[in-house]
Specification:
binds pyridoxal-5'-phosphate; binds (2S)-2-amino-4-(2-amino-3-hydroxyphenyl)-4-oxobutanoic acid; globular; 7-stranded mixed sheet; 396 residues; DegT/StrS_aminotransferase; Kynureninase; Aspartate Aminotransferase, domain 1
């Protein structure tokens, strides 16, 4: 088993402590050279022949199997491609069609906006007969009533890092006759997952956060193998067809989860992701999780000792927290800008959340102490009051 951290596998700029891998993972060294090879050799020299000669055609399924291993799902049960928002839409449409007599989509008020927007858009396209319920995250378990068609939740809350009890909620959903969809955006590569054992009907996620696949890297969708053959995909694209190159006029779904593919795979991004996944070789998710909890507890203690004005927004109990730590602070936006100026990169989420990703693949205790010291300096000195830190960037 390989020890952590694995900093040498990442190309991080000097002088930066990166606490934003929960939004965009850093560049794995192997990914840059693989991109060069795919672009220059495969695309440049092999041209269209590369679909066969460089294995581009098999890439989506191969990468899907590597993700399946990281989320505890069966080989062949994960398809890759598109964006997470698209995968949410596909999963929710399939879930609603599995429960045609029910009209309620249950999510929570902390869910990522795109997931909620997708549910709203889908409901509109289905004639506005469905109701989207969004109780507070801690009230979801009790809100799973027998009129719920689909429970659609993000496992780790993007703002607070609060973790839903996946096994308990899935069991409750199934007991109530509802279909379960988990969004693993902030879980895949962050916490150990046993999707096969927990057995939700669907799990979706992105690969540019803790899986370090790069900006815009493809999303994934897992469909439980025993239901997949009954799914008629709403986005019936040719790459989800049983025989794409037969060019038949009518759609016939591919066997198994491959039917959730839509169009041409993003070959360069998939190749980058494939290379990025090498950093997990020989790494146990349990070891990553234990290290993340140690580092997170240290971070909380160090920040709280220096900054009484920052209020912990994440659960104090590590078992109830994903791989991020968030604090509430009214001047949070400016404080994050001041920290970025000092080489400590975290991010801000409305209305007052300072958010820090804890990623043991490339962070150690010295980084955590240095980051906490910088936070103490920015808050304690009042440096965040500087007008230059109040200017809002387009992407925050
Ligand atoms: C929980 C969650 N769901 C959905 C999304 C949207 O993903 P995408 O922009 O890849 O569609 C994100 C992040 O952007 C997210 O954090
Ligand atoms: N996908 C992003 C993007 O294209 C630009 C900026 C940020 C993102 C993110 O992924 C945000 C992220 N889902 C979050 O938890 O806030």
């Amino acid at each position: 088993m390989i020890d952590l951290p694995r900093k040498t596998l990442f190309d991080l700029p000097d002088g930066v402590i990166y606490l934003d891998g929960n939004s965009l993972g850093p560049l794995p060294r192997g990914a840059a050279s693989r991109a060069a090879q795919v672009i220059t050799d495969e695309w440049g020299r092999s041209l269209i022949r590369a679909w066969n000669s460089a294995g581009w055609m098999d890439l989506p399924a191969r990468v899907g199997d590597r993700i399946a291993a990281l989320i505890g799902a069966q080989p062949g049960s994960v398809a890759t491609g598109d964006t997470l928002s698209v995968k949410v839409f596909q999963a929710l449409d399939a879930a609603l069609k599995m429960r045609p007599d029910r009209r309620v989509i249950l999510s929570d008020a902390g869910n990522f906006p795109s997931d909620l927007y997708m549910a709203q858009g889908l409901a509109r396209s289905l004639g506005q007969e469905h109701e989207l319920r969004t109780p507070a995250p801690q009230d979801v378990a009790d809100a799973i009533t027998e009129d719920v068609a689909a429970v659609m939740l993000t496992h780790v809350d993007y703002r607070t890092g609060r973790l839903h009890d996946m096994a308990d909620i899935t069991a409750r959903a199934h007991a109530a006759g509802a279909v379960m969809i988990w969004d693993l955006a902030h879980s895949a590569g962050a916490v150990p997952l046993e999707i096969g054992a927990v057995a939700p009907e669907f799990a979706v996620g992105c690969t540019y956060k803790f899986l370090n696949g790069g900006p815009g890297s493809p999303a994934f969708i897992h469909v439980r193998p025993d239901i997949v053959e009954d799914i008629a995909p709403v986005l019936a694209g040719w790459m989800g067809h049983a025989a794409p190159f037969a060019m038949e006029p009518g759609y016939r779904p591919a066997p198994a989860t491959e039917r959730m593919r839509v169009g041409t795979p993003p070959v360069v991004q998939l190749s980058l992701l494939d290379a990025a996944l090498d950093v997990w070789d020989g790494v146990s998710m349990e070891v990553v999780r234990a290290a993340a909890l140690r580092l997170s507890d240290l971070f909380i203690a160090e920040v709280e000792a220096r900054c009484p004005d920052l209020a912990l927004a994440s659960p104090r109990d590590g078992a109830a927290r994903g791989s991020q730590v968030s604090f509430r602070f009214p001047g949070g936006y400016a404080a994050i800008q001041a920290l970025i100026d000092r080489g400590v990169i975290g991010d801000f989420r409305q209305p007052d959340i300072m958010r820090f990703g804890i990623t043991p693949l490339y962070l150690d205790a010295d980084d955590i102490r240095a980051a906490a010291a910088a936070i103490g300096e920015v808050i304690g000195s009042g440096a965040w009051h500087d007008p230059k830190y109040q200017i809002r960037a387009r992407v925050t």
